[in-house]
Every structure is written in structure tokens, then in C-alpha cells.
Amino acid sequence: MSNLEYGQGQYILSKFDYLSERSRTLFFTHLFSNTIDANKLINFVLAWDAFDKSLYQSPIEEIFALAYRLHLLRYSKPYEEILPLYPQEKININGKTYYADFLIDPMRTEWVTYGNNDIYRLVIECDGHDFHEKTKAQVEKRNQRDMDLKSAGYDVLHFSGSQIYRDPDKCAEDVFEYVMQKVGEVTM
Question: How do strand 186-187 and strand 113-114 relate by DSSP bridges?
């Protein structure tokens, strides 16, 4: 793997100027401390430019999505295509509509088979303090929502904004490893 040259690093950083300085600093500290092939990273940034960032409701969602996609670059299989994140996915359960921050639904990829052929869907929630768990009613609503999702066959993981800011790559790695344990061996 090659290291990023200074100009490449500056170019990549410039593409994320719209993030707050705190978000950028925390995210890129972890990003550049992990070894990723510079050419893959540049290609990722070019693809990210074309990606619809309006799908994200908060900076922590965007940081998680970046970290997850960058984490997938470390593998030889095209996991970006096999285990994509679907942001702000609408889920209807018993007349209630929920929006998942992210959904991973491996069974949408028809050209891939998994060791465990059971249907598996994972909802990932990025819980920033500004919108979650400020009141008892919010906690009760979240708990009911999680129960509804689980009863409909969804698995649910929550990450706090602090977890995502502190170590977005670990959050992404945790999700990837968790999903891989659930779906089993991936063959194409």
C-alpha cells in the first residue's frame, strides 16, 4: 500500500470542508492513522463527490457512512456492492412508518450468496444527543420502535454521536464484523 502524499491529503481534506472543524478533525485523525491505499482513497473521494449527501440527517450519519465505506476499501471483495448502506430507509411495520438512519440488507444483492441463507436486515441508528434520549418520552419511543423493528425481523444497533466522533472506523468495523457473523461466508 502506498502512503498519501501531502497534496493528495490536502485535496481529500478540501472535499469535506462543509463538515464542522471538530467532525473533520476527529474523522480524519482516525482515517489517516489507518493505512488505506492512496489510489483507492482518491477514487473513493471522487465517487463521494457524486454521492447525494442530502440523504444524511446529521454530521454523525455522514461520518459513519464515510467510515463504513472506507472500511470496506480494505478488503479484496467488492463489499461496497455486497453490503451497501441504505440511508434514511423507510420501513413500514403494522401501520407505523419508521426511518432508519441506515439499513444493511444483504439479501437485496441477488448475485451474491451467503453461508447463512436466512433473511438478515440490520438497522443502524446514529444517536446524537441533540435528537435522542433527552426525555423519558424519547427513550420510551426509541424502545418501542426497536421492539417493533425486532418483531418484524430487523436487527438494530445504536451508536452514540460520541462513539462515532471518537472512533468512526471502530464503529464501521464493528458493524461489518457483526454483519459478517450473521450472514456467514460470502460467495459471488
Answer: antiparallel
Say if CB 103 and CB 121 are below 8 A apart.
yes
> In 3-state terms, what secondary structure has residue 122?
strand
From the number of C-beta atoms within 10 Å of its C-beta (0-12, 13-18, 19+), residue 46 rates as exposed
CA distances 34 to 28, 41, 152, 160, Å, are 10, 12, 37, 22
Cα distances from 45 to residues 8, 99, 162, 184, 186, in angstroms, run 11, 27, 24, 30, 26
- Say how far apart CA 16 and CA 31 lie, in whole Å: 13
Q: Which domains does the chain have, with CATH numbers?
A: 58-187 (3.40.960.10)
Type of residue numbered 142: R
pLDDT in tens, the chain (188 residues): 345 566 666 766 676 776 667 666 666 665 555 555 666 666 666 656 555 667 788 888 888 888 888 788 777 667 777 788 899 999 999 999 999 999 998 777 665 666 666 678 899 999 876 555 568 888 898 999 999 999 999 999 999 988 988 888 899 999 999 988 888 777 66
For cell 441533540, what's the residue?
130
pTM of the model: 0.75
Among 185, 52, 75, 177, smallest CA distance to 122 is for 177
